[in-house]
Structure formats: C-alpha cells, structure tokens
Here is the input.
Amino acid sequence: MTRHFLFLLGSSRGNGNTELLTRKAAEQLPSDVTQRWLSLAEHPMPDFEDLRHDSDHVRPSGDTPALFLDATLAATDIVIASPLYWYSVSAHTKLYLDHWSGWLRTPGVDFKKTMAGRTLWGVTALAHEEEEVAEPLVGTLNHTAAYMGMRFGGVLLGNGSKPGDVLNDSAALARAKTFFAQDPPLARFPYES
Here is the structure.
C-alpha cells in the first residue's frame, strides 16, 4: 500500500521553526510516498459546534471542513505540526481535532473505523530547554491516536524561539533524519496494561 502523508501546519505564521523541522523530516521520506501540505491558518476552520446528541448529522458543509475531512480520510499518515503554545497544541490544531468529534458521527464515513491502524505523528518546536514542558502536547496526540485505534509515531521535538532557530538544534535535525522511518505501535492510554 502506498503511503500518503498529510502534513497539517498549525502555526499562525508560515515558515516557523515547527514547519522548518517538519520539512527537514519530510525530506527523508522515500520518493514513492505522496505528501500533501495544508496550513490550518490559511484555511481557517469554522468554530466547532457540538452536535453529538442531535439526530441530524450530515457531511460537513463549506469548503474548508470538507477539504480537511477528505484530506484526513485520504491519508495513511497524519502529521500534526504544531508549535508548543501554552504547553499544548495551537488553537488552529485544537480546532481541527475538535472537528474529529463531529466527523465521528458523519453518516457514511465511519471515521473511527477508517482511521484505525493509520499513523498519527507530531512535530513541535518549543522555546524551552526542558522537553518535559511538551508533555501535554504529546499526551493530546497520543490519547487522540489511542482513542481512534491509530498508531502513534511520537513527537519530534526541536528547540527554537526566533525564526530559524531550530536549524541550529543539531540533535533535533539528527532525529529528523530517521523520525518517519520507524514503524510505530498502536497508541495506548497510559493506564492500559
């Protein structure tokens, strides 16, 4: 099966440290792997309306929700490239993930079953020497993957505050060379044995 990577850029600015690190990792993918890059800032999602208990669930309307639903369903690998904002994912990224709740109830999609077995990855840049501060972001992505029955490739962490700083993080650049080469296991919640 040909792998298809969907890269979702969650930063509010283009070419930031997270995007630079993500592109360095993506350069290592084999040539037969297709890639699609979408900026969540350039294609803003509408506010999420929780309709879980309403009976009228329909396919998302509007160009942007349909764009992201179709791109997500087409991907074998989803890469959340979100800077660390207040110890978690960016607002753009969180809104995209909130829409997954609606997609779970979209008729004819069977979103959870469709996503099961696919792989969720994360890439983030943080302006902090202690990588432990990114644990809430890592937890968000791991738990999302675990709930959906997806594999979790972990989060590639890089350090950088000013634009381009991450390119000076030699350890992160070295990890980027092999990040997507791993065969990640199914995600698990921490309390699962």
